[in-house]
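Q: Could you write out the predicted structure for this multi-component system? I'm mainly interested in how the pieces pack against one another.
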Amino acid sequence: MTSRPAAASRSRRASRRRACAGLLFVLPAVCFTLVFFVVPLGMTIWMSLNDWPLLQKPHFVGLANYASLLHDDSFWSSLLFTVEYTLAVTPPLFLVAFGLALLVQRRAPLVGIFRTAYFLPVVIGMAVASLLWVWLLNDQVGVISDVLMKLRIVDEPLQWLDTTQSALAAIVVMVLWKASGFIMVLLLVGIQAIPEELGEAARIDGASWSQRLYHITLPLLRRTFALALVISIIGSFLAFEQFFILSHGGPRNSTISVVYRIYREAFTAFHLGYASAMSVILLAILVSLSVLQLWLLREQDA
Amino acid sequence: MDANLGAGIPARLGRAASRPRKRWLPSVLFYGVAAGLAGLFVLPVLWSLLTSLMPAAEASSSPPTYWPSRLTLENYVRLANTGDGILHYVWNSSAVAALTVSWTVILSTLAGYGFSRFRFPGRSLLFVGILATLMIPFQSILTPLFVLLRTLHLQNTLTGLALVYTTFQLPFSVFMMRNAFDVVPLELEEAAMVDGCTPGKLLVRIMLPLVSPGVVTVALFAFFNSWNELLAALILQTDAEKFTLPVMLLNARSGSLGSINWGVMQAGISVGMLPCAVLFLLLQRYYISGLIAGAVKS
């Protein structure tokens, strides 16, 4: 028979042992995050305060990188272009995705196959997808020009890289193909969370399809839309492959996104410190967007 | 084709069945529009696949050839002789993906179990800390990652790339796995513990089978993200021998590995697309459930 204090101390020892075991279980993941995330994050800030060439020794320059960044048109124009791209791609993306979601939200034979088809491009990598569209959009061998000409929509092959607008339009079309399915799934989840009785009751009261859409579906989807919007905007801000591969930043360097600009500064010009200062600005933007997202989620829970 | 996309989405019941179908026109319209759109989304993929099987001259013809005179694997053979040969890069990409998937699964299963079942000082801080990584995508800390991996002599190694990929898979994966463990009833574990099972044995023998859907989801996302990733691979792998498939295809396109034609390009693109398409078609319910959980994380 054990006395009471002995039992208590044994259970304390057991709970300490369990706490140790718990720590051991999470330790590997924590170490990875420390070494390959927290350390580089700290380094970004430190590097942004240094002149950091690839081969020579770095030296501390204080805020000099930020000072030159203020007058660096190529950076601000890349930021502006990223905003333009976001503004150009987001409305059509949501329009198409919402249309698709409405189309396949019903229960009918084959609907699952249609959903799968619309979603398929999402799982193909952006790099490979961009290479695919280089070919689709090519003026000589590309299918798109040829089909448009056969349908007499255009008279000659598309020279989509001639102007900034047409290059941007081509990339928007490509992203619509690639990402609509993703937004569609997010919206579908929202649509199917709407109690069906609401629509049914309105229908019995004589509300038309468009009235039900405007007065029931859309208002109830507000938060789903807001959430999908933030996710999509963050994605647009990180856009790289489509500009790097599809438009090469052209024509005349007019389609260079922020990430592309940072890439060039760091890995073509090898100004690692300066590129880090740019990264810090991008970081600040992304964190604010994420905070917005969290705030929207909090609203949803409340 | 599997028709279960949206298996993770609660199904609507009833409406179609409860109403008699008298009006056939809307139905024809629906199927026409839906199938036409499906064509727009799927045809580019199938088209590339078909072109990869055309004789070289037809694959590069202008205007494009819509129906090949015969099917051939010659583009794939050419691709096998480009640079170090496509198989070399497929091997690199597969090795990185295999490392990323196994590390991600092991680390996130351990961490998910730890966060779900044990109380220890700093638990919520560490959990929130790992999740907060989601806010900062790797694109924004690439420059220091490059410097760090060079310092650690991990640049130009497949291991180094996999370490980076694994780290950025962790927030989503740990979150998924913790949720998976959270729904397993405590009684199961208590019973096993009374039988004298150690935490490690308990995890492998009893818990792991119960959380296997979570493991599949986590593994699937780790695979897709590592197989498809370009930017980090572009920066960290400067040695042509260590290129992953997307980097190699990019170089093949710009001709730095010798001149190349459109048919061979489509063969390369097909090799890049097919594993993803097939895995998705087979395992889409896991993929979609992960997507939804990831999007509405809290």
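A: Regarding packing and overall arrangement: Chain A has a mean pLDDT of 90.
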